[in-house]
Specification:
Elements lengths: L28 H12 L3 H13 L2 H29 L3 H4 L1 H8 L1 H29 L5 H17 L1 H28 L14 H13 L5 H5 L5 H30 L6 H6 L4 H28 L7 H18 L5 H26 L14 H17 L8 H11 L11 H24 L1
Helix pairs in contact: 1-8, 1-11, 2-3, 2-9, 2-11, 3-9, 3-11, 3-15, 6-7, 6-13, 6-14, 7-13, 7-14, 8-11, 8-13, 9-15, 13-14, 15-16, 15-18, 16-18
Length: 442
């Protein structure tokens, strides 16, 4: 392992203020498990689950798509988590080992953009849930409160992890059990068939929601004591929580006859549902905090000498301001775009890290550009777009036309999923190109 040059040692139990300070290794398996479990328990879970139910048009297929998609995503997340525990570098700085110092700028900029978007959407969904419990006129106040708390947590991230483990996890478990019991006590109805796209597009949706946290993983697992704690804590914690909360959305569609737009309101109308949702609303702040803090860590790959606390303040203010001005937008296509970028990226990274580089990445300021994993990422991205081009105006028509030519005007086979296709192609390409690169170097 080669770490960032001219590093200094941290004597504090908090996260380093600049990139060149070594991260304290204070988090064990239970810390990681509860942290990632809290991240996985999100109000976006039922929203995504409701979309999965609509895409499959079936309760059984919807639940199966959730398990398959979240399971694939959790394995990618766990693999990405080991980058941090092994190198000691935050997520985007660790990708210097994959793309070189200059090459890591591209995923860093993309990650900053998606994290600001996620932080904004988290604050929006918190305010919307609060409005469902109270009144629309107070939305602006809930936005500001959520933004302030999330920013404060980002300033002291390790202290926030300890707080989540000691208190919030128990309240969240009680609220979660109640919601499941309340939803399952209702009779099951047929799911509408007007938005059915198929099983594998639903899997892509579920996987993208989980993999969206892979670019954040190393920001927290760099504080892990062991690689095993990093992998198991993140994959199990987030994966299990995501399966449960996506499944809650699927079940809500079948029993409460709701949809992705109204699923939160439907849960609030349950007896004592407002109390349970209030607990989850408070817990939702940790997702906003994670995105604010990880935006800061990504920015450190570009400006590592700047105190992270000032960066967090700027990001927190920006996300809060955007949440006051914008709407939730096209959440589904946002997830697909994230998936098409980061699923193949981290699949290529995992293959290169474990099988090509043998867990020896150069994450220093002098790390050189590497073409094999970059080309593997591009191959996986193209494969994802060809299978699932989405419906983004000005972008999707190009891929749809290419798809039609590739499949001779026939629809994509139902068994072909964008998630596993891009993972397989990215990994195989990373291994093949990586070995070719080594042969040329010799």
């Amino acid at each position: 392992m080669t770490t960032t040059a001219a590093r200094t040692t941290s004597t504090d139990t908090e996260a380093p203020l600049v990139l060149t300070t070594d991260a304290p290794r204070t988090l064990g398996f239970l810390d990681q498990f509860t942290l990632w479990g809290n991240f996985g328990i999100s109000l976006f879970g039922p929203v995504t689950g409701a979309l999965v139910a609509a895409y499959t048009g079936s309760l059984v297929k919807g639940l199966l798509a959730v398990v398959v998609g979240c399971g694939i995503g959790a394995l990618v997340l766990g693999g990405a988590a080991v980058f941090g525990s092994q190198t000691g570098a935050p997520a985007m700085a660790s990708l210097r080992g994959l793309f070189g110092r200059r090459g890591s700028v591209a995923p860093t900029v993309l990650n900053i953009a998606q994290n600001i978007g996620w932080a904004t959407m988290e604050i929006i969904v918190i305010s919307q849930a609060a409005v469902a419990v109270t009144s629309e006129r107070w939305r602006w106040l809930f936005v500001i409160i959520a933004g302030v708390i999330a920013t404060a947590m980002a300033v002291r991230p390790l202290g926030s992890v300890k707080l989540l483990r000691k208190f919030m996890v128990w309240l969240v478990l009680i609220a979660s059990v109640y919601l499941f019991v309340a939803v399952l006590s209702k009779p099951v109805h047929d799911i509408p068939q007007d938005s059915v796209f198929g099983f594998w597009p639903a899997v892509d949706l579920a996987a993208a929601g989980v993999v969206s946290f892979a670019p954040l993983a190393a920001d927290y697992t760099r504080h892990s004591r062991t690689n095993k704690a990093a992998f198991a804590g993140s994959a199990l914690g987030y994966g299990l929580a995501a399966i449960l909360y996506y499944a809650l959305g699927v079940l809500a569609v079948a029993t409460l006859q709701t949809n992705s737009t109204d699923v939160i309101t439907a849960l609030v109308t349950l007896p004592a549902g407002a109390i349970a949702l209030f607990v989850l609303l408070v817990d939702e702040v940790d997702e906003a905090y994670a995105n604010v803090y990880s935006t800061t860590m990504a920015a450190h790959n570009l400006i590592g000498h700047v105190d992270r606390r000032w960066i967090s303040l700027v990001i927190g203010v920006l996300a809060t301001g955007l949440a006051l001005l914008v709407d939730l937008g096209n959440y589904t296509q946002f997830l697909y775009l994230i998936g098409s970028v980061f699923i193949p990226l981290f699949a290529a990274a995992i293959a290169d890290f474990f099988l090509v580089s043998k867990m020896r990445w150069d994450v220093s300021d002098t790390a050189r550009f590497r073409w094999p994993p970059t080309l593997a990422w591009v191959c996986g991205f193209v494969a994802y777009q060809l299978v699932n081009p989405g419906t983004v105006e000005g972008w999707s028509p190009f891929w749809l036309d290419l798809q039609q030519r590739l499949f001779n005007g026939q629809p994509v086979p139902g068994w072909l999923g964008a998630t596993y296709t891009s993972i397989v192609i990215s990994m195989l390409a990373a291994i093949l190109f990586g070995r070719l690169g080594k042969s040329r170097a010799r």
